[in-house]
Amino acid sequence: MFDLIVESTNQILTLTFNRPRVMNALTQEMVRELKRVLRDAARDGQTRVVILRGAGANFCSGADIRVEKNCTLVEYRDFVSDIQDITRALQNIDAVSIAAVQGYCLGGGMEIACACDVRVASNDAHIGFPEVGIGLTTTSGMTHLLPRLIGMARAKEMMLTGEPVDANRAHAMGLVNRVVPRDALDTAVLQLAEKIKTRGPLAVATQKHLLDAGADASLDAALRMEVDAILTTFASHDGQEGLSAWIEKRAPMFKGD
Q1: Other residues' Cβ atoms within 10 Å of the Cβ of residue 44
Q2: If exposure means fewest CB atoms within 10 Å of the residue's CB, which of 94, 173, 183, 237 is most exposed?
Q3: Is 7 helix (H, G, I), strand (E, B) or coil?
């Protein structure tokens, strides 16, 4: 049985953590396979949406503590480096990434979810960063990403107490985009993925990277980046096709260039 299930259908890549007996805790092999799959998806240029989910009742409880405990310092550094590469891959890929968060989503699991572009949670989700409770700290860029999502004060409270929040609290904080009933989670995520697929591929990828870059830029720098982006999309086939389709009152036929 594979610890990471990879399915690709109609430009949607679904990656399922598949160790349900240990709440889908991450091993180094799982992380390296996830890196490889995301690298290949970025290269193929065909994947429009990446969905990350967990088998069974939970999303992911983070790194497998038994695996961590038996690592040498060199091995542990490699493990951390590999997990951080997941953040880089999800941020850099043109495809939109969606985390389907259910049950427990903790530590490294929540770090992966935070690196995604969108998070949809089931109403039974429990989300947190318990690292300080076992004498460790977060990694995967959380000191950068989490304050951007929920603000520094809330990020400090979550990370310094190690206490999880429920789905509704996570939604109120801005940590997840929406909350749905447990039995509606897969459908809600797939509907969101399908909606994104109807939009211009070049525009979606450009807008995604523009938002990430603009968040850390000055207003003047963001304005300059926006000019470059809209001129690029305006001059593209998709931009001209989208404008023509709107005028002609028909569905656009996007090509991704």
Answers
A1: 11
A2: 183
A3: strand
Q: Which of 126, 88, 121, 117 is nearest to 193 (CA)?
A: 117
Beta strand pairing call for 126-128 and 104-106: parallel
Domains of the chain from N-terminus onward: 4-197 (3.90.226.10), 201-248 (1.10.12)
Element of type H or E holding 153: helix 152-161
Q: Which residues are catalytic?
A: 111, 131
Q: How far apart are CA 237 and CA 244, in angstroms?
A: 11
Q: Whose CA is closest to 124, among 176, 162, 160?
A: 176
51: burial class by Cβ within 10 Å (0-12, 13-18, 19+)?
buried
